[in-house]
Amino acid sequence: MIMETLLKYLLILWMMAPHPIGAVQTERPDAHFKSLEVRLVKDGFDRGFIQEIFKNQDVSLEVRGISLFFMHQESTLNYDQFTESSILNKARTYMQTYRDPLAAAEKNYGVPPQVVTAILLVETRLGAYTGNRLVLNSLSTMAAMSDGGVRDIIWQSIPENRRLTREQFEKKADQRTRWAYDQLKAFLSYSQREAIDPVNIRGSYAGALGVAQFIPTSILAYARDGNSDGRVDLFDHADAIASIANFLKHYGWRENIGREDAYKVIFNYNRSSYYVNTVLEIAKKLEGTS
What we know:
It contains 15 helices and two strands.
């Protein structure tokens, strides 16, 4: 009882003591992005905009997600699951639900509904899973790996039995941090253009977002307003459908395209032979759906 009374007395004294005004509001949640903020402002972003973003309490290093980039990959996604009859039936239902935007995409870009649907199925299970990591944290953490301290934090987070060699890690980190900085700039530009709070956008640990899983530079280059509401929202199915079709058209999709050329076009979406062959197989099985 004596100890309890003493603790209460000390707590009252602490509460009565003066504290710096605004200390809680201005304290940075994470100091690892200071040099990154300087770079962004130097590259043309408004200082107030950048400071406001990075002082948000939800902004922090995405250590767990980014470490996945640097682990030995012992398994790959089971793409065969997407050709199961129950999954294909969901894809057929999706094609009926979004018949109009799919038809509009085919009219405007020449890409058949079954091809767009196949990509959406493999990417996000038709929008059911678009990722749960803050895109800002993922891209900022990768971009901040230009700083040796951040890079060491990522290295130490990787289990020893899953690590690349340190030389391989450094080489990959150099490539990834340059890529991520470009993606971060594109992401912030997109969020400003569409008046979206960048701290609220979730996606994959690689920084891809929306139903179509576009990376930010692809959003700026290829994303389209599919529902004619004056905005580009990759979490909206009509926008995602139009954006995928526009992307494929840009890389050479055309009417009556052969399988070999179709393979080359889709390979630009995801540089995996397994992925491309699965998309083409799904599209073939969906032919005739209306």
